Please model this.
Amino acid sequence: MALPKLSPTDLEAQLTHLDGWATQNDKLHKDFTFASFVEAFGFMSSLALVSESMGHHPEWFNVYNRITIDLTTHDAGGITQQDIDWATTANKLAAKLAS
Model:
């Protein structure tokens, strides 16, 4: 059973806690930039494991040290708490790599 789609009010409240994330084309969206391709690929590899454990997979695109991520819960027809949780984990992992 899919999680319910967040209301616009709930989504806006959640976005205040998600540094760098915004809505774009009815999806959560963020561009990440890393120091190198290896760091970017390591970030993606780590998030692939998170995605598998959550059963929730991003739409993402990588060019050298940049990664573009879009999140939505297709079964719910929009952004859910699962997308927020995944984005929160991505931000924490990116911060850990940057330090």
